[in-house]
Each structure stands twice: as structure tokens, then as C-alpha cells.
Design brief:
It is elongated and about 110 Å long. It starts with 5 loop residues before the first strand and ends with a strand. The model has no long low-confidence stretch (mean pLDDT 82). By secondary structure, the chain is mainly β. It has three domains: 159 residues, FAD/NAD(P)-binding domain (3-Layer(bba) Sandwich), CATH 3.50.50; 108 residues, Immunoglobulin-like (Sandwich), CATH 2.60.40; 98 residues, Immunoglobulin-like. Strands 18-25-24-20-21 form a five-stranded mixed beta sheet, with no helix packed on it. A four-stranded parallel beta sheet has the order 10-2-1-14, covered by helices on one side. Strands 8-7-15-16 form a four-stranded mixed beta sheet, with no helix packed on it. Helices cover 8% and strands 38% of the residues.
Length: 429
């Protein structure tokens, strides 16, 4: 049986390891690396509880096969946004990948199954004899030679023609330990000035990788609103937003805006970036307020989508019913808890926003005897009432016996229009 060709790869960085992993199933592959380990330009140094990255700060991925290599080696998404000073904008990082244990760990698992010869610096290659010569005195023959070396090193070995006209700009990496109370949502900065092309924090390696979208709470008119409730035709949408790493309000990336969709009409979605206001002294939370106009009578749905600064999104949806304001409406009449022992509270929804209402609750025994009357004058800024509490006692302040009771809840507005509903509750002892 004919022996498979021998492939020698110079270097043990990410490209060399990825290449060797794909070829090793079919060929005899050896990698030769001048430093003491794998990783190449993915080199990083650990200092106390953080890491300093001497080479690549992240890698990008658009190729499905390369994505498999990253997944195998437990790569994570870049943890945080980047700001580019020259462009004056945030940089999209959804295709940026790093590793919490340092960049060289992106090829750690793959390298363990490969034949990597460390501390072997190639000093000459005889392409006629197909022999690579190393500083240690080692001479290695090959059938195929693959170089993953940077251009200046490869140029010395292979003497490329000058007509290639390849420019190589070296740079210096400086690690700084800074104790500062300054907080920023950015993990790194690009194109800071003519001398600094990259200024990065170690937090996008050491912090817990954020893969959760913002927390959203959505209401209409006031925070007592419950999905499925009633509303007028011009309700105020209110959204409370929180994310540990901040909210994306600039819409970086296709479809990364704060987006509102009414009645599943995505062709007429509304961008709400300009309606977001951060809470005082924090970039982590804020509010969105947007007034809807001239909604038709009947049932409607609202769906809002919000992104954080790490390219994670969340969506919330609610339904509501627009009723005509020319007549008084009452819905979702209930008491809670039900059953109850010592106290309960009555709740209801109505369409009389910012209006005074006369409230009447009459409680009956199952035989029809009135045992308790509750009368209040209320004023709600919204469409859902606050709880009207009852201690389970009758009009004479006596504790009622356990059993089933009925109650009729009615409201009357200042124009004399009235609506009422009857419900059942259970008193336990």
C-alpha cells in the first residue's frame, strides 16, 4: 500500500491548525512552531486575574467550516460593543469571536490531536530537495510544504520576487493595569488616533458572555394595564427596558432598531430609537413612550423588539381592545385572592380614562340578602383600577360565615352613564 504524502506546515497558529486538522484525516501532517506552544498570533499572557493579548484581539467568521472549528474549541461571541473614532460609530460585532481563556484557546482542543513540534524555528528551505532546515540542526524532508508564516519571515525563507509589493506594518502591543472608577459600555475602541489603532479592555474575555436580550415590561396608558384589557383609540405605549450591558439605540446592524409592529403589519413597522430615554445616571435602563393614534374599534396587537449592545434581542407582545368612548364599558371584573380567608381586593377595567367615577360594590349571600355595600368615588389615570379592599365583614362589622357570595360591581361616570357586572367569590375559614 502506497504511503500517503507527508505534509509539513510551518507555524502553529489558527490558520495552520485549521489546515492541519482538515488534512490530517488523509495525509501525514507535521507542524513546526518556533515558539513554545501553539496559537501563533493568538498569543496572550495571563496577569493576576486578567489576560493581555499580544496578538489578535478577536477573529471573524463567515465560513461555515471555520465556524465548526470555533464551535469545537468553545469560541464565544465578542462580549461587548466597539466604538470606531474615525467613523464615529459603533462597530457591528456579531461575527467577532473570542475565548474566555485567551485567544490561543481557540485552537487548543484541535491542536491536542495534531503532531506539533514546538521550539523549532525554520531557517532555510531547499525547494529542490524538498528539505526544511531548522535552527536546532533538524532537517525535515517533505512532499508538500505549507507556510502560515507572516510575510517578512516567509520572504526570508522563500525569497519572493519584489514585484509582489507587499507592505507589512509592524505594531507594538502594550499591556496596562488600570484601576479606574470610570465606567463605559464599550469593550474596545478602534482608530483612536494616528498612533493607536486599537484600545481594548480584557472584559470581553473575562466577563460572563451575555447571550440574553433586554428585560422588557410593556403597558398602555399606565403600569396597571394587563394584556387583553380595554383602551381608547389613542393610547400611550409605555415600555420599561433593562439590560446589564446597555440598550442599542443607534440601530447598528440590519434590523437592530427598536421596532414596534402593530397588528402584525411588518411592512409598516415603526422605529422607536428616538423615543428611548435612559434612566438618570445609568446606561442600563430606560423608558420608551410613544402615543398611538386613531386606532379602529376592536382587538389589536402590539409587538416591540429591543436589542442590547451585545447583539441580543428580546420581544414582548400585548393585546388590547379599543372601545368607543361614547358609551361606558366595564371588563375584567374580578376579586383577588379568590377564594380568600380574611381579605380580598376588587379590580376592574373601564374606558373612562382620567374621569371621575362613582363606584358601587354590593355583596349578596346566595339567598339574595345584601350583606355589604361599598361606595367610592375614584379617579384613574388609565383604564385599570387600583384594588378596592374588603376585609370579609358585613355592614355591621361582623365576620361573615364561610361560603359562596355574589357581588355586583357598577360604575357611573359624570355624564350619568352606567355599567355593571356580577361575579362570584368564595370565603374560606
Amino acid at each position: 500500500m502506497k504511503e500517503s504524502p507527508k505534509i509539513v506546515i510551518l507555524g502553529a497558529g489558527m490558520s495552520a491548525v485549521a489546515c492541519a486538522e482538515n488534512l490530517s484525516d488523509f495525509f501525514q501532517v507535521e507542524l513546526y512552531e518556533k515558539s513554545k506552544g501553539f496559537g501563533g498570533r493568538l498569543c496572550s499572557k495571563k496577569y493576576h486575574e486578567t489576560r493581555f493579548h499580544l496578538g489578535a484581539q478577536f477573529c471573524t467568521c463567515t465560513d461555515p467550516d471555520f465556524k465548526k472549528l470555533l464551535n469545537k474549541n468553545n469560541a464565544k461571541k465578542f462580549n461587548g460593543p466597539i466604538y470606531n473614532f474615525s467613523k464615529k460609530e459603533d462597530i457591528e460585532t456579531h461575527q467577532y469571536f473570542v475565548h474566555p481563556d485567551g485567544m490561543q484557546a481557540l485552537v487548543r482542543e484541535s491542536s491536542e490531536s495534531l503532531d506539533i513540534r514546538a521550539r523549532e524555528k525554520c531557517i532555510r528551505v531547499d525547494t529542490q530537495k524538498k528539505i526544511a532546515y531548522f535552527e536546532s540542526g533538524l532537517e525535515v524532508s517533505y512532499d508538500i510544504l505549507i507556510s502560515s508564516l507572516p510575510f517578512p519571515q516567509a520572504h526570508e525563507l522563500f525569497e519572493f520576487e519584489e514585484s509582489l509589493n507587499i507592505n507589512f506594518d509592524p505594531c507594538i502591543a502594550v499591556g496596562l493595569m488600570i484601576n479606574s472608577a470610570i465606567k463605559t459600555k464599550y469593550s474596545a475602541y478602534q482608530s483612536v488616533n494616528e498612533d493607536i489603532s486599537w484600545a481594548g479592555s480584557s472584559k470581553f474575555y473575562n466577563a460572563t458572555i451575555d447571550e440574553k436580550g433586554p428585560q422588557l415590561e410593556i403597558f398602555l396608558n399606565d403600569e396597571n394595564f394587563v394584556s387583553g384589557g380595554i383602551s381608547n383609540s389613542d393610547p400611550l405605549l409605555m415600555v420599561s427596558v433593562f439590560d446589564e450591558n446597555g440598550i442599542n439605540t443607534v440601530g447598528n446592524g440590519i434590523g437592530h432598531d427598536i421596532e414596534l409592529v402593530i397588528d402584525n403589519n411588518y411592512n409598516k413597522s415603526i422605529i422607536l430609537n428616538d423615543y428611548y430615554e435612559s434612566d438618570l445616571d445609568t446606561y442600563k435602563s430606560g423608558k420608551i413612550k410613544f402615543e398611538l393614534n386613531e386606532l379602529s374599534t376592536g382587538e389589536h396587537t402590539l409587538k416591540i423588539k429591543v436589542w442590547d449592545n451585545y447583539n441580543n434581542s428580546s420581544s414582548r407582545e400585548l393585546t388590547f381592545i379599543v372601545v368607543e368612548e361614547t358609551e361606558i364599558k366595564l371588563s375584567h371584573v374580578l376579586n383577588y385572592p379568590n377564594p380568600f380567608t380574611t381579605k380580598t381586593a376588587f379590580f376592574f377595567e373601564h374606558n373612562q380614562n382620567c374621569d371621575f367615577l362613582d363606584l358601587s360594590i354590593i355583596i349578596y349571600s346566595v339567598t339574595g340578602r345584601v350583606v355589604k355595600r361599598i361606595n367610592r368615588r375614584i379617579h384613574n389615570e388609565g383604564f385599570r383600577s387600583e384594588g378596592i379592599f374588603w376585609d370579609g365583614k358585613d355592614d355591621f362589622n361582623e365576620r361573615l360565615a364561610k361560603g359562596v357570595y355574589l357581588y355586583n360591581l357598577s360604575i357611573t361616570n359624570e355624564q350619568g352613564m352606567k355599567a355593571d357586572k356580577t361575579q362570584t367569590m368564595f370565603l374560606l375559614k
